[in-house]
From TrEMBL:
Keywords: DNA-binding, Isomerase, Magnesium, Metal-binding, Nucleus, Topoisomerase. This is DNA topoisomerase (ATP-hydrolyzing). It is found in: Nucleus. It comes from Medicago truncatula. Residues 92-153 form the Spo11/DNA topoisomerase VI subunit A N-terminal domain. The keyword Magnesium applies. Its EC number is 5.6.2.2. Residues 1-20 are annotated as: Disordered. One of its GO terms (biological process) is reciprocal meiotic recombination. CDD domains: TOPRIM_TopoIIB_SPO (cd00223). Residues 202-373 form the Topoisomerase 6 subunit A/Spo11 TOPRIM domain. Belongs to the TOP6A family. The active site is at Y121 (o-(5'-phospho-dna)-tyrosine intermediate). GO terms for molecular function: ATP binding; DNA binding; DNA topoisomerase type II (double strand cut, ATP-hydrolyzing) activity; metal ion binding.
Length: 379
């Protein structure tokens, strides 16, 4: 009987895998068709001695309008950029885009993957800088109305996960449950993740690897039945997509713990609202359900952070905060976040998460985080 059940489960998993591969293949064929249509249109114009006009939609994830007259973070473009062969800068940009498009076409045809860095090194003397390739990939995604992973262009994974979760990526099983406080790398091919099983009560996202390791050392996941994720600074695309996938599938609360400084706050907003660079793909990357757990500027008094742990804001910090205060989503969607950010500017100081451990080494895991979650001290 047991053997029969195992065979049935194996058959179901194989069926899901084949269905996933079939859908991926269909998407690849559709994308290849779009590439052919685009390049053929260029060739027809050039053959007829017409200067091709390329319209690229432009998206934003925030602006400085405080009213409702913006479409930031939506699926709607905020305008179009016109590329022609009349401008030298446009010619250069189109040249790079077409070179990258040829590489993407080959990746799709051969069902292979490549990193942005790999693509850069295929023509380093032409591209000159990695940012040029990044810009071209974003332009291609907008033109083809797809996400970066649809191009078979992947990011090098930086994210870590541990806790009460088990899932399958391709043919690899990630069993975090058997050892919940052991770190596992977040898979690069998030679209291939399936069979997610979890007994977690919530998801905790932490900014830094040092805090992630503190939680692991204190066996935080085992004691609190949770999942902990870290993007190790500004999160890469796989980490953001993985978090969104978990929130959508598990339907449990998600909290974010970052340093009490403008860069920590910016990382928090990247998780919840997306980034300007990837604004065209915000709908697949943002996690609007995430709550800010800390560290708040007001926590310095609430948790008696010593003065020697409070660092003065630099001129650059102040400029960054002032610019962030104008973001439309802070004014309309999370005014409480804006009040805390304003308090940071008024106090003129910042502090790291680790400053909370000045009382005891395990203060963060035994007191701070549990009190925030169970006392609902999050926004």
């Amino acid at each position: 009987m047991k053997l029969k059940l195992e065979e049935e489960d194996s058959g179901k998993m194989e069926g899901k895998r084949k269905k996933l591969e079939s859908k991926k293949s269909e998407n690849g064929i559709l994308l290849l068709d779009k590439i052919k249509v685009f390049t053929r249109s260029l060739l027809v114009n050039l053959t007829n001695r017409k200067s091709p006009i390329i319209l690229i939609d432009r998206f934003k994830n925030h602006c400085t309008l405080s009213d409702s007259n913006c479409f930031c973070g939506s699926d709607l473009p905020v305008g179009k950029e016109v590329l022609t062969l009349c401008k030298e800068t446009h010619v250069r940009r189109l040249d790079v885009m077409l070179r990258v498009l040829v590489i993407v076409q080959k990746l799709l045809q051969e069902n292979k993957h490549s990193s942005k860095r790999d693509i850069y090194y295929m023509h380093p003397s032409v591209f000159l800088d990695q940012s040029v390739v990044d810009h071209a990939i974003n332009d291609i995604c907008v033109l083809m109305q797809c996400s970066r992973h649809n191009l078979n262009v992947v990011s090098a994974g930086n994210g870590l996960v541990m806790g009460w979760i088990r899932f399958v990526e391709g043919k690899k099983i990630f069993d975090c449950i058997s050892s919940p406080d052991t770190a596992h790398p977040i898979p690069v091919y998030v679209e291939e993740i399936k069979d997610i099983v979890s007994a977690a009560r919530y998801i905790l996202v932490v900014e830094k690897e040092s805090v992630f390791q503190r939680l692991a050392n204190d066996q935080f996941c085992k004691s609190n039945h949770c999942i902990v994720i870290s993007g190790r600074g500004y999160p890469d695309i796989p980490t953001r997509r993985f978090l969104r996938l978990l929130v959508e599938n598990l339907h449990i609360p998600a909290y974010c713990l970052v340093d009490c400084d403008p860069y920590g706050f910016d990382i928090l907003t990247t998780y919840r609202f997306g980034s300007m660079q990837m604004a065209y793909d915000t709908k697949h990357l943002r996690v609007p359900e995430i709550h800010w757990l800390g560290a708040f500027p007001s926590d310095s008094e609430r948790y008696f952070v010593p003065k020697q742990c409070l660092l003065p804001l630099t001129a650059e910090d102040k400029r960054k905060i002032e610019a962030m205060l104008l973001r439309c989503y802070l004014q309309r969607e999370v005014p409480q976040w804006r009040l805390e950010l304003k308090m940071m500017l008024q106090k003129g100081v910042k502090f790291e998460i680790e400053a909370l451990s000045v009382h005891t080494l395990s203060f963060l895991t035994e007191s701070y985080i549990p009190s925030k979650i169970h006392g609902k001290v999050q926004i």
